[in-house]
Structure formats: C-alpha cells, structure tokens
Amino acid sequence: MGNCLSASTLPTEPNAPKSVEEGVKVFTVADLKKATNDFGNQMELGESLGYINPKTLSPAKKGVGMAVAVKKIYLANEQAFQDWLVSNYIISIYRRTFGKTNNIVDVEFLRHNSHPSLVKLIGYCYDRDMLFIVSEYFPNGSLGSYISRDSRPKSLPWETRLKISIGAAQCLAFLHSRKQAGLYRRYLTASKILLDSDFNARVSYFGKPKVSLDELVYTIGFSNVAPRYQYPPPEYILSGMSNMAGDVYSFGVILLKMLTGLGKDLTISAKREIKNKKYNIVEMIDPDLKNSYPLEAGRLMCELIKQCLEVDPKMRPTMQEVLDNLNAIAQI
Q1: Which candidate, 95, 91, 79, places its Cα nearest to that of 11?
Q2: What is the CATH number of the domain that holds 108?
Q3: 72-97: per-residue pLDDT in tens?
Q4: For residues 234 and 239, what is the distance between their CA atoms, to the nearest angstrom?
Q5: Proportion of the chain above pLDDT 90, given as a percent
Q6: Total domain count, the chain
Q7: Domain Protein kinase: where (predicted)?
Q8: Residue at 43 is within a domain
C-alpha cells in the first residue's frame, strides 16, 4: 500500500549496549492496521493502542502480544520524512538512486545513543506523506496528566514525583553528554515524559521534524538555528539562541509544575517568588502532599528549581548537576 518501505530490520552497532534490541522494524500499513484494529484503539496524545509479537514484531491479538503505541503524523513530503529521521533518531542518511527517478532512504541507527530512560522505538512506516511511529506503550500515560490539581486522575506522592524527576533527568543528562550528535530536547514538556506501570519515567524522543537536513550541520555546531521551545528560556526569547542550558530551563519549569501542582495555571509571580528566594515552602508546595515530605527536601527542591530558572544561562547547572542534586534530595 502506498510507498511504504518493505518490512525489515535495521542492523545494530556491534558494540551496542545489552539493553538494545536487535533492530528497528519497518512496518507496512497493513501490519499496523491489523495490530491496532484499524487504528480504533485511541489513547492519550492521539496514539492508537496495538499488539505485536515481541519476537517477530508481527501483528498479534490482545492478551497474546506486547502492547505498543502507534502515533500517526502527517508530513508534507519525503523531505519532511528525511528531516524527521535526522531530528528524531540522530541517524545517518544515504540516498541510493534506482533508475532515474526513484530515491529511497537507507538509515543507520547510532545505537550508542540508547538509554534505559529513553522511550524505545520499535519501528515505523512512511506511506503517502503519513508517518506511523511504533514505540513502547506506557499504561500510566504522560506526566502532564498528573500535574494539575484540577484535572489529574490522582495525586502522586512525594517519593513518586522524585522518582519521575530523577528518571527524566538521567535521560536528559545522558543526551547532553552526547552533545556532538545535536541531541537537544528543545520541545521538552511534561507530556513528553511517559510513565510505565510503576511510574518510572521515560523521555519520548519522537515527534514532528525539529530540524531539517540542511540545518543539521548548524544544530551540531550549536548555532541559533533551532526548533521552538515549549518552555522558552529568556535568551531564546531575546535572541533565538539555544543550547543545552535552555533544556535545563525547560526542565526547571517541569519541576516547578510538579512541585506546585499548578500545571497550566502556573503564574509568572510563582516563578518570580522562587527565583528571588521570596517563597514559603508550605505555601508553594502542592497542598495535596500535606506533611508527607521532609521540609529540608522541599527547601532544596525549591533552590534547585531557582537555579534552573536563572535568567543568565551560564548560572544554570548542567543536567548532570541537576541529576546529582535530585539524587541527594532523594536521600533526605
């Protein structure tokens, strides 16, 4: 159907970590329709729930196969598909010409970028400008649905919020350590942090193209050619410049939302109170937590958020330093 690439698996790097599976499946549309009951099982974020055989990655029935999430994204053209491959998976792209008009994309995944806290890509399909992404299924949805006190299904305890923060920070610190590959998460939001059945956090790396093939060289060179931030740091608003410090700022906003439970209602004054150290722990922290957290841990969390939200990007901690601080807070 359409011009979807034939089903196959892509080779892994010889020295890939043990956690990495044996390849990424290139599905057909027919496969995905069968696995998802014709895309009828709708979930959060517009994804469809499907089931596949964990060994063969072929369609399977509920109760027999492994649950997967299938996201459908419209792409304007083949160039947008190539841009998506580059910006989302940090891969090498090679064009091979067959005849005079047909081009196909051959991809080689850089497996050393795999991490336990990064959502695993199982496969994909590109068909008639429609991109289907098949990834792990997360029964507890995204962190975004657990933040706002007015709409969340339940309030997460302090320990769970810390665990989620640490898991997400581990992934971001890892991605930043691979900065030569241009692995910035400029579109990081709470909805990009997914939660498994035990509320372990995994950062989703999939979405629409964030940088084009032509712009990749500039992204690797840390220039001002960059995707739009969801939680823009001051320097991006003023000059359009972006780097890893901007990701730290975005992560600080997520921590602030988790701390306060305000979600979309987070006010500028609340951010200013924390940045200026004019905050009262009892008043700032989500009242649903009551007295279930150590007061010193709450104070240190506020201090960490303040550092992440510094106006001067040079004054912000690195993601590794954020992770170290979160681990220290968890020990209190």
Answers
A1: 91
A2: 3.30.200.20
A3: 777 655 565 555 555 554 344 333 33
A4: 9
A5: 19
A6: 2
A7: 43-330
A8: yes
Dihedral (C-alpha) 238, 242, 244, 250: value to the nearest 10 degrees?
Answer: 50
Task: Count the alpha carbons within 13 Å of 253 in the hemisphere toward its beta carbon.
Answer: 25
In b/e form, how buried is each residue of 175-212, taking b as 16+ CB within 10 angstroms? bbeeeeebbbbbbbbbbbbbbeeebbbbbbbbeebbbb
The pair of three-digit structure tokens given for residue 71, joined into one six-digit string: 């996201």
45-54's contacts with Cβ under 8 Å and 24+ in sequence apart are 45/71, 45/142, 45/191, 46/71, 46/72, 47/71, 48/72, 49/137, 50/134, 52/122, 52/134
Answer whether 226's CB lies under 8 Å from 240's CB.
yes
Same domain for 103 and 163, yes or no, is no
Q: How far apart are CA 212 and CA 215, in angstroms?
A: 5
- pTM for this prediction: 0.74
Q: How far apart are CA 184 and CA 176, in angstroms?
A: 7
Query: Mean of the pLDDT values across residues 264-285?
Result: 62
* Residue spans of beta strands (DSSP E) within the chain: 25-26, 47-52, 66-74, 91-98, 102-109, 121-127, 130-136, 193-195, 201-203
